Amino acid sequence: MLVTRPQLPAYDPIQLVGRVLSIDNGICTVQCDGANWHCARALSCLVEPQIGDEVLVSGPDRDRVFLLAIIARPENTTVTLSVTGDMTIRSEAGTVKVHSAMLTHIHSDQVVKLTSPNHEQENDSAIMKIGQMNYLGKKLDAVLGSTDLFSNVIGLMSDSFKSVARLCFRHVKEVDHVRAQTIDYEAEKLTRVHGGYTTLTAQEVMKINGDQIHMS
What we know:
Elements (H helix, E strand, L loop, with lengths): L13 E11 L2 E6 L2 E7 L12 E8 L2 E9 L144
Parallel strand pairs: 3-5
Antiparallel strand pairs: 1-2, 1-4, 2-3, 4-5
C-alpha cells in the first residue's frame, strides 16, 4: 500500500534585524540591509515601536512579514505597552505588583474602577483633588489625630447624633439658631448665660428654682 505524503510548501522564511524608518497606520517600514520591509506589529509584541528602534522582523515569506520584537532603543526613551482593543492582566494563583522608582500614574479617558472584597491603602501623605464626590456605605470608622475642616456650607442630617468630648469650644461670629421641641442643658457646677441684651420668655409658665436666688 502506497502512502502519499503531503507536499510541503516551498518558501524561504524571513528573519531579519533592521531599523524602523517610519510608521503609518500601524504599518512599520523597516530597513534591513538596504531593503525596506513593510510589516505590521505582531500581536505578541506589546511594546509600541518608535522610529529609530532596532527590531526583529520575521515571517514565512515576503508577503507575510511581521515585526516580532523591539531589540534595542536609545536610552532615556519612554517605553509604551499598547494593544488594540481590550486588555486583561491576570494572575491565576499569585500576586500582581506594579512598582516604579519615581511616579506611578494611572489615567483613563472615562472611568477608573477598583473592585475587590477588601481594600487597603497606606501612604505617608496624600493629596486628593475631586470636583464632586459621593460616598455611599453602611459604616464609616475614622481614627484621626487632628482634623481641620473648611467649607462654605456644611449640611448634616441624621436620625440620631451623638458627640462626646473632654473640651468643646464653639465660636459663632453672627447668629446661632437652635430649634427643638425640648432643650435640656445640665451642668454639674456652673451655668452662665450672658449677653448685651438677654431675654427669657415663656408662652405659659416660667419657673426659677434654687436654694438661693440673687437678682441685681
